[in-house]
Amino acid sequence: MFVCRLLHFVLLPVIYSSMHQAVPVVVPVTTETAEVYECVHSSDPTAANYTWYRQDRPSLPEGIKAEGNRLHFMQSTSDLNGLYICSITNEYGTFVASFYREVQDCPLRRIFKKVSAMWMLLMQTQSLPS
């Protein structure tokens, strides 16, 4: 397995109008099984409603799972790159935090995938002698 990945994580500025709440932010959380981002806000997370979406899609792409204030990337591929937005609604109003995620696939991994696919095709088209 090749472990070659470059991740760019950029916090974007947030504009809000309430003086009752701190500005929400999205922070990366390291886990063993997935790339996870958490939407952090000063209010009680259980008293808020969190909605995650990607700017260019009406719903989250396959390979991404939203659970409350956490966004889980189950696959670490470049096709999941984009601007992700966390919308928080609580008793004080609606607040928004966002981040831009960019993963660049390792060139060696792309080559390995192509060679593996070609090898499998070759094995399927040739019969092995007994």
UniProtKB/TrEMBL annotation:
Record-linked InterPro entries: Ig-like_dom, Ig-like_dom_sf, Ig-like_fold
Signal peptide: 1-22
UniProt keywords, alphabetically: Signal
Ranges where the Ig-like domain occurs: 24-104
Top-level taxon: Eukaryota
SUPFAM superfamilies, alphabetized: Immunoglobulin
PROSITE patterns: IG_LIKE
Coiled coil: none
Protein name per Swiss-Prot or TrEMBL: Ig-like domain-containing protein
Lineage: Eukaryota, Metazoa, Chordata, Craniata, Vertebrata
